[in-house]
Amino acid sequence: MSFGAGRYLKHISAPSLRHTLSSSSNLASKATLSSDPSPTRLVSSPGPALRLGGLSRHLSSSSSKMAPVTKQYDYIVIGGGSGGSGAARRASGWYGAKTAIIDAGISGGCCVNVGCVPKKMTWNFASINEAIKAGKHYGYTTGEVSFDFKSFVEKRDARIKVLNGAYESNWAKEGIELIHATATFVSAHELEIKPKDGSEAYRITAPHITIATGSFPTKPEKIPGSQYGITSDEYFLIKHLPKKMVFVGAGYIAVELAGVMNAIGVETHLFIRGNTFLRKFDPMIQETLTKHYEEAGVIVHRNHPGIKEVIQLNPGADESDPREKQLKIISNDGSEIVANELLWAIGRSPETRGLGLENLDIKLQKNGHIAVDKYQNSSVEGVYALGDVTGQAELTPVAIAAGRQLGNRLFGPPELKESFLNYDLIPSVVFSHPEVGTTGLTEPQAIEKYGKDKVKVYNTKFSAMYYDVFPPEEKKKNPTQFKLVTILPDEKIVGLHILGDGVGEMTQGFGVAVKMGATKKDFDSTVAIHPTSAEELVTLR
C-alpha cells in the first residue's frame, strides 16, 4: 500500500479534511510520429473506427441525456497516485502521448498522503524517542525528556503539501493534463467526467485507459459499533496521543503503527487471530518479531477470538481528540477492554466504486480486484489496471514500476512492445521496531516449490554492536536475526529474510544481488564491511 489512491481511495491528510482520492492494461498500440518537434517522441493513433464509433454514439443521443464529448486523448489514467503517475509520466514525458490524469482527491495517492511518507516520518519520530532513552546506556544524562507530538504532525503535514505540489508540477512540466474530477466508464474508450468543482459533466475518450485507483482500508461493518474505530487513514489525523490504543490486525500496517505508538509511550494492545503476526512472512520473522514486541511492551493478545461489539462510553466527546474518547471493546469470549482509540487494520479493498465497471463487463477476481495478465491488460481491450486495485504486490514502488513498463509498451519503440513487470523477487521492508527486510521465497515456500531435499537454509542470530553497552537483560531483548534460503546444487539464493536495526537500508542492495541470481558462493566471496550487521550475510556458515 502501497500502505493505493482517487474518489476512490478514502483519504484524509489534515484534521479538517476528509475526502476521496483517485490513485494508481490488451494490445500495444501502433506508434506514429508526433507533431512534437522531438523526433524521438511517439504517440498512438486511435483507429478511424474508434473515432467514428464515438462520434456516432454521440450524435445518436440527445444532449439532454448525454454529456457532450469534448476532448480526445491518446491515454487516460484514472488515479493520481504512485502507479497512475508512473504510467502517465512515462507515456507523456518520454513518448509525447497526449495524456490526462483524472483524480478527485489530493495528488500523490495513498503513499504520499496516508501511507508510506507520513508513516516513515512518524516511524522516525518514534525511533528518535527510542534513541534518546538508550542514551543513558552510553553515559548520557538526559533527565526527563518530553516531546510535542502536535508540532511534529504539523511539520509532517506541511512536508506532505510540498510533495502534493511537486506531483502536480512534474505532471505539468511533462504535458499531462490534471482533471480534478471523478470518472465513470460509459464504454471501454469513453468516460463521463464529473468535475469536482460542480461544473457540467462531460465526456472524454482515449484508445488506452488505465485504472490505477488504489485501495481503501476497511472496517468490519457487521460488528456493532465498528464505526467508532478508525483506520490507517484517520490515524494520520491524530495530533494528541491517546493513553491507551487497541489495534486489530496482524499485517504490516497494524504491526508498524502499533510499534510506533508503543515506542512513544502509548499503552498499546494488538489483537491477532493467530499465535504470531506477519503470517505471510518467513516463520523466523513471525516468531522473532512477535516475541520482541511483547518484550518491548506491546500487549499482544494472541489467538484473539474476535470482537463482538464496540460501545462508545462518552458520545459527547471530541471525536478528533483521542484523549477524550472512551471505547469499550467487547470480545466474543466476553472479555472487555476500555481504550481511548481503536484502529482496524484488517485489510484493504480495491477502489472500484463509481467507476462503472459493470458497463464494461470487466473480469474481476473473487475479492473484487481487477483481473489482469502479466502486461496489465484487463479482460477488456484497451483497458488496463495496475497497483493496489489489482491486488498485485501492494507496494508503491511496484505500482510505479508497473506503470512505467505499461507506458513503455503502449507508446514506446518497437523493442519495448513486450515490456512487463516481473513480480518475482520484489524486496520489501516492514518499518516495525526493529525493521524487517525480505525478498524472495520463505523457507516453507521454497520447500513446497523445490522439495525439502533441494533446500538449504543458513541462519544467524546475534546482538548488534549498538547494544554492547546495554545491560545483558536489555541486550537480549534486541535481537538481530538473518536467514538465507538457497537451493541446491549451486546454492542459488531464492530467499533473504533479515530483522534488526538498519535492515531497511540494507535490504535494497541485497535485493539487487538476489534479483541477479547470486549464490551463497557469491556472498562468501564478497569482502565484509566491518563492523556492521550486514557483514553477517557474507560470512554465514
From TrEMBL:
Residues 426-540 form the Pyridine nucleotide-disulphide oxidoreductase dimerisation domain. This is Glutathione reductase. NAD(+) binds at residues 249-256, 347. Catalyzes the reduction of glutathione disulfide (GSSG) to reduced glutathione (GSH). Constitutes the major mechanism to maintain a high GSH:GSSG ratio in the cytosol. Residues 28-43 have a biased composition (Polar residues). GO terms for biological process: cell redox homeostasis; cellular response to oxidative stress; glutathione metabolic process. The active site is at 530 (proton acceptor). It comes from the Eukaryota. Binds 1 FAD per subunit.
